[in-house]
Amino acid sequence: MRYLRHLLLSISSCLVLLKTASIPCFAAEQIIFRYGVFEESLPVADLRKYAQRQEVSSNLQYVLNFFSLAEQKEFHQALQVKMSLELAALDKLLNTELAKENLSLVSQSIARRDTAGVQALNAAVILGANSQEGLGIVSFIEAYPSSRLIINIPAVLKVVNKLNLFPSEIPPKDNLSSTSTWQMEVQYQEFATKGKEFSACLFGDSVTAELGKTMGKGTFNFALNGLSGISLVEQLKLLIPNKIKCNKAVIAIGANDAWYGLSDTLFANKLQESISLVQKLGSSQIFLIPAFYSTVVASKDPNISATNARVKQINQVIHQVAVKNQIAFEIQQVESLNQNDALKDNFSSEDGAHLNNQGINIYRQVLLNILNK
């Protein structure tokens, strides 16, 4: 799921609020998957029903048949992603050369008879972001200003390849800071937070990123999908010059470090460096969250996560670093999510490596309790 999320964020992060008066005010009713001379049509309403209630129409079933069961679960979970983005920061992001290049690249994956592809994408982002549910895959498609959204499959595959959205090896390595999607995500954060003071800042991987902007006023969520200690250090180095102040900070990494194969020594060094960099943001209190376990089944699949045994070892390293720095290691706070060093199935998302809505609500309350100490 983390790679599908990267694709969605790469699209939305490249788009800004542009005037679209010349674009017809239609809304997409059909998604057309085009591969050469072959086309398959899917009503947008069918996609929404699948996202909300997992109802599968005959048209959608035809499309899903091309995916494995695991990929179907990943796709359904990606449909649940909603993003609340600050439009002023997005506007600044568009003026970067990197964003312009990616915007042009993404627009090539949607076929049109005219040359208004970029404007159409912008219109879809505007309306999708202004929808009640926020910007997500379904709201974006529903807002696309044409009765048909024609997706050119070969072009999409080229976009995914150029943006490095899929790992070249399993388990993957942390090369996030070299990818354009990660660079745009961090640039967006720089624009959104420059010169501001926050009561609390969250730094972490996809589990913490799923909290979005739900932690209340005064808290900024800097968490990024796929983050490990390696990329967290690079992220913090870019944020510090922007004179951001975080009175309190939460660092929640480790699961990806275990998955990427970082040694105990390298992970400890990167975590220590991250703590030192966070202190430069003015944090008087820093809280370390243990690495999140996956379910028993997911922990046995190297395509999804590290083994839970390795995650447990990483947590021992986090504890050692916490003791050395005399900062809180909040392992007991999140134990309700786990059983026998594994994520409970009833709190797990479909891939077994993330939290479902119930799990996210528990994690949110845990963080609120920690930050209110």
Summarize the structure in words.
- Residues 1-27 form the signal peptide.
- With 373 residues, the chain is α/β, with parallel strands linked by helices.
- It folds into 2 domains: 2-162, no CATH class; 176-371, 3-Layer(aba) Sandwich (Rossmann fold).
- It contains 16 helices and 11 strands.
- It has helices at residues 2-14, 44-53, 58-64, 69-78, 87-94, 97-107, 117-129, 137-143, 153-162, 180-193, 206-209, 229-239, 255-260, 264-279, 308-325, 357-371; strands at 30-35, 38-43, 82-83, 110-111, 135-136, 148-152, 197-204, 219-221, 245-252, 285-288, 328-329.
- Strands 8-7-9-10-11 form a 5-stranded parallel β-sheet, with helices on both faces.
- The radius of gyration is 21 Å and the shape is globular.
The largest sheet is: 5 strands, parallel
CATH topology of the largest domain: Rossmann fold
Quick one: CATH class of the largest domain?
A: Alpha Beta
Mean pLDDT: 86
Computed structural class: alpha/beta
Shape: globular
Span between termini: 34 Å
Task: State the oligomer.
Answer: single chain
List keywords for this structure.
SGNH_hydro, hydrolase activity, four-stranded mixed β-sheet, 11 strands, hydrolase, five-stranded parallel β-sheet, Rossmann fold, alpha/beta, disordered N terminus, Alpha/beta hydrolase, 373 residues, 2 domains, 46% helix
